[in-house]
Amino acid sequence: IGSATAPTEGAAKSLGVRRMSDGQVMGEGAEAGAARRRQRTRGKKAGASQMRGSHGQAALDFTNNLVWQPPAFFRRRRKGSWSSWNGLEGGVGKGPLERLNQDLQARLVEVAPRDEDIDCIDRCVEELRKMLPRLGGASDWKLSIFGSAANGFSVRDSDVDVTCISAAKLLRHHRFASDMSELLDKEKEKEKAKEKEKEEREEKKEEKKAEKDEENSEETEETKHEEDNETRVEEKAEKEKAEEKAEKEEKDEKDEKEEKEADEKKDNSNCEKADSVGEKKEEDSAGDDEQQLAEEPQAVLRGRWQPMLEEHLQFKVVEEIFFAKVPILKVQFDGRLEVDLSCQNTRAVQNTKLLRAYANMDPRVRELVIAVKLWAKAAHVCGAAKHHLSSYSFTLLTIYFLQVSVDVQLPCLPVAAFEPDGAGEDDKQVKAATAGWVLRLSTAELLINFFLFYNFCFAWGREVVSTRLGTRHIIEEQPFEALQGRWSARMHIEDPYIVHRNLHCVLGCEEELQLRTAFAEAMHGLSFGLLPP
Questions:
Q1: Strand locations in 281-391 (E)
Q2: How many whole angstroms separate alpha carbon 359 and alpha carbon 351?
Q3: Distance between CA atoms of 281 and 437, rounded to whole angstroms?
Q4: pTM score
Q5: Alpha-carbon span 490 to 3, nearest angstrom
Q6: Is pLDDT above 50 for 53?
Q7: Residue 447 contacts residue 104 (beta carbons within 8 Å)
Q8: Which pLDDT does position 211 carry in this prediction?
Q9: Do the Cβ atoms of 498 and 484 come closer than 8 Å?
Q10: From start to end of 292-336, where are the E strands?
Q11: CA 337 distance to own-chain centroid
Q12: C-alpha–C-alpha distance, residues 125 and 163, integer Å
């Protein structure tokens, strides 16, 4: 082998090499390396970086058009042609997208609430409603379910959120608002009447001045012909001027006096009306501040609900959270169902109605939200108590993606329709927004597009997740002037009802990096046809 000449054919076979057609000799290992290099060269010329999974199937290529398109192309082995995700020669149903969709549906079936879970929730709510008459007070109480158990995005063994609302308190609030609006209307009418009176006074003054000017002009003409009466005319003019000045001063004093009296009357009337409105409010609320304090959420939960629940055999008080922004009493029903009981939590009820309307638009909307929430919990990036985004925030992230996606264009529902006085899903604007909308993508395609959007399209630190507007905006724009923390380069999520509330307030800096890493890992798994954990 040390000679410069090539070995003979027999020597080449004994050394594990073979003679090439061009006279060169190459080892088997070297040939395999050259083949791999040629393959990489072809991939670079084609403009795509090829990845291969452990199962031997080619991974997706992400170098082409990431905006709004799922990774819908495969690079076939040994061929430079491209085929769609489902467009294998066997037809739809044999591609990895269909298998991914089947796996996703199987997972959703596994976590779907069972009949016994729904029955347990119904029995729990029924027992709680039986306790409402025992709450006492001058108010008529009603019980409302909110959260995932009521908005359509619930899973098996999920918690139940319940709140008790004082109907009388809401009525007093509406009556007080209507009384104040009536008072404001009456005050506006009185101000208009005063302005009219002032205008009439000014017109009368101008008429008197015009008459005096005419008299003076006539007198001056006479004085031209009567030179003897000049002194008398001058004296008369001076006298009239003095009278006019005195009359003017007297009128000014009179006007000032009338204005002062009117202001005093206005202040007295406002005080009397405020007192009367306050008296009406006190009469409606059983007449004193102690009753209002007794209906505060903390007082109701601690003084009324807790003793009743401790006496009940099916309920067990697990934790008391009375000093939070929304006081909560955590209880357990029948040894299995976790219940979060709150009081006067009307905003949560409105959010539930809005989210339920979105869930009812198409079953795939509900399935996508559940899939995202399952991924967030499995990836340990969900939970406000651990400085992560809440489950409610991930629901808003999903709905916002569906609204701004050009392949979906989920209609944006008016939040005002789901206020306490709104018609909800029967509202004309809601029906007009949802009329004619059709969703053509499968749940698996929606899930892939969701992770593509937040990995490659979403402007982290500038774009605002706003389901209230349903369109893409940056934080510097006018609709978000009141949004808290708007100048920090963080993920911004607007509450659809409390527009100044930024839901990133619970998200820590390290937790946000963890969230972005989880998004990237989920997209990497989907590129190999694997569901996120």
A1: 315-321, 328-333, 337-343
A2: 12
A3: 46
A4: 0.63
A5: 69
A6: no
A7: yes
A8: 75
A9: no
A10: 315-321, 328-333
A11: 28
A12: 11
**Residue 517: is its pLDDT beyond 60?**
yes
Q: How confident is the model at residue 420 (pLDDT cuts 50, 70, 90)?
A: confident
What is d(CA 209, CA 443) in angstroms, rounded to the nearest whole number?
84
Tokens encoding 211: 């008459």
Contact 304, 156 (CB under 8 A): no
Whether 187 has a pLDDT exceeding 70, the answer reads: no
498: its two tokens = 């409390």
Strands in 337-343's sheet, in edge-to-edge order, are 141-146, 160-166, 337-343, 328-333, 315-321
CA dist 183 and 270 (Å) reads: 9
For residue 264 the two structure tokens come to 């005093």
Whether the predicted pLDDT of 30 surpasses 80: no
Which among 488, 455, 457, 490 has a CA at the least distance from the CA of 472? 457
pLDDT (0 to 100) of residue 41: 63
State both tokens at 76: 């076939």
Instruction: Tell me the helix, strand and coil percentages in the chain, rounded to 5.
Output: 55, 10, 30
Q: Closest Cα partner for 517 from 525, 91, 499, 486? A: 525
pLDDT at 208: 75
Residue pLDDT, tens place only, 57-87: 333 333 333 333 334 433 333 333 333 344 3
Residue where the block lists tokens 């007070």:
137
Q: How far apart are CA 391 and CA 381, in angstroms?
A: 10
Q: What angle do CA 165, 170, 174 make, to 5 degrees?
A: 165
289-333 confidence digits (pLDDT tens): 444 444 688 888 998 999 999 999 999 999 999 888 889 999 999
Burial (CB count <10 Å: 0-12, 13-18, 19+), residue 140: middle
HSE value, Cβ hemisphere, 13 Å, CA-based, for 59: 17
Closest among 393, 390, 399, 397 to 364, alpha carbons compared: 399
Contact 412, 402 (CB under 8 A): no
Tell me how far apart the alpha carbons of residues 80 and 286 are, in angstroms, rounded to a whole number: 82
